[in-house]
Amino acid sequence: MAILTRRSVVRGSLGLVASGVLARPFIANAAAMTAEVWYAQGFVPEEDAAFKKMAADYEKASGNKLDYSLIPYAALRQKAISAITSGVVPDMIEVADFQLAPLQAWDDRLVDLSDLVAPAKAQFFSTALPSTYLYNNVTKKRGYYVVPTKVAAIPFHIWKSLVEKGGGKIADLPKTWDAFMDFFKPVQKGLRAAGMRNVYGMGYQLTANGVDPIGTFNAWMIAYGGQGLVTPDGKLHSDDPHVKDAVLKTIINLSTAYKDGYVPPGCINWNDADDNNAFHSKLMVMDFDGTISTEVALFHDKEQYDDILTRGLPLSNEGKELPAQVAVFGPVIPKGAKNVAVAKEFAKFMIQPTVLNEYLKAGLGRWMLPIPEIAKSDPFWLKEDPHRTAYGELTLIKPTLPFYEAYNPAMAEVGAENVFMSAVIEVMKDGAKPEDAAAKAFKRAETIFAKYPIAQS
Amino acid sequence: MTTASVIDIGGPAIGRQTLWRYWRGNLKGSEYLWALAFVVPYIGVFLTFVVYPVVYGLWLGSKPSLYTDLFSDPIYQSTIVNTILFVGIGVNLKMFFALMLSGFFMRPGWWMKALLMLFVLPWAVPLLPTFISIHWMLNGEWGLINNVIYHLFHIDGPAWLNTRWFALGSVIVAHIWKWMPFWTIILLAGRMAIPQELNDAAKVDGATGLRSFLHITFPLLANLYLICTLLSTIFTLGDFTEVFFITGGGPANSTHVLATLGIRDAFDLANPRLGVAAVMSALPVMIPLVIILMRKLRTTEVEL
Fold first, then answer.
1. What mean pLDDT do residues A299-328 have?
2. Cβ atoms of A342 and A34 closer than 8 Å
């Protein structure tokens, strides 16, 4: 056994330091071929397996390495914000919400990926591009900061068996907005009469946290004609009479359904997963929730999977087609990333139509492909499965528009504060007058927008 | 003169040597190098994982405009009230019950030990599944609690998480349930250290029950009780788990405490500096508490 002496410790330490100094250039060279990637964990294991396969394919094709982590959505957002704030960033982060990228692009904390996205413009569906074309307040111009890889919209999910049990018929589902919502009221009464004490006709998030309530409020507001709340030039139109009227109608309709007992009272304080859990437990006939993760979660339970009807948006009350807001997600490269070249190369590999198609298909189609030509030609998306067909039509075939956050990051702050859904809650919970709640929400939105002026070119 | 010059020359040399020896902690030769080798990693870890994060946090929350934004936010104002209620009621009720229960568990008998083991379980189980389960149990429509109420009494229970005061009350009860066993054990250990002779002598003098508690047990436990309460207050001020997982700060952001508001501001609003400022705003309370705690820990009187 060697004897540890002071001299031997000093000698050993010096040796380690020297070898570290001499080896450093080679270590750095090896790292240059490795990109650190943070991606959102899937809702089902198949999504993660699909990402791992795509990463392995890239590694094989390029000879580079990907040091990737699959992180749950909420934790990924926290890690991303912490990393970008501290400046110690990975080479690629997937953004899986519609607030992070607009806010970080505004602060010039993301790499402009226009050189990557612009040449591939032709392959993407029309809303993919404005959704990722974000404003940078330092350069005072817009650029593509997100590589479009996934599309998400909000469909209705309906238990067919509960509708039948409540005395309704799926074939009778009305085509216009208000009539569609009203359809579930007698169904609820029928179910209650059949002894189902705590079942509700409608389910959606009426909370003041998370992104789900933003989608709910916007969908109702657009259905009532308030699509122009924020325009592509990034301006807020709180004085537009159509917008004002639509916001007021949304506040009244959402709060009235709640007060009348057609929405679970607990939805005022649901977290992101609560509506999924409640719907899966058949405690709500209808749920309005983003993507087809609700269905995909039951993919291996065929009876349940087939019992759900996925339905796009009804027509407006005037009988017109309504545009669905779609979120376009994908990777960003934060400024300060060490291996931008490898990250960009991986992103470029990823948006090859065949690669992206295989990746999203392997993830059970929870995310829609942003490339309509492939989606139309591959039966997987629009023919083989009724849920994917409805979802595909909602996102790619019928009219869509981006979430307002892409037009102006002020809307990300308005959304993070849930300014408009808070107005609904004030009416539901505190008995505020809808007009007063709407005026308060507009005032708050105007204050926030004043902090985000966008130069008009 | 010669003698004086010797003293003049030798004096400072002895002083320097003494100072050097004092600085080296009376260690000689290689002992000093070994001591350095052992202490340097600790200093490195301390600087990296304690000093740096604290200084970085102070720097993040150092802009005065952050506090203007914070204080003008109505959610912050209700958060301050919630924090005072959560910490004030939660900690004091928990410590009071723990003190009472520590007396109960002093009773002899194997069944008391078995009961103590069961009693400690809430503290022993992991935090997150516990609070997520409580969140579900409190669901007004489908939760376990209201279903039990309905099946027993055929009435609908309250919507626990739908109003501010019920939701905050639920969080306080969950906090007490979760942490009371730990403090009960600490106070039980304190009680067990009180010499039995004191109680025996008191019995001879006719002091039993409440009088024995008031005049013997509590005075001897007072310092420990105060230290435990201060520690628990400091822990609870920075704790976000109960509120985050049970109410999520809702409904409508009405049950946030400073720790959860910090998380909301940092990550939901994507404004980490504001989040740090929210948490930093507890420092004017936290620092005096730590100072009092340190002073109490220095107490040299014979107290438990």
1. 96
2. yes
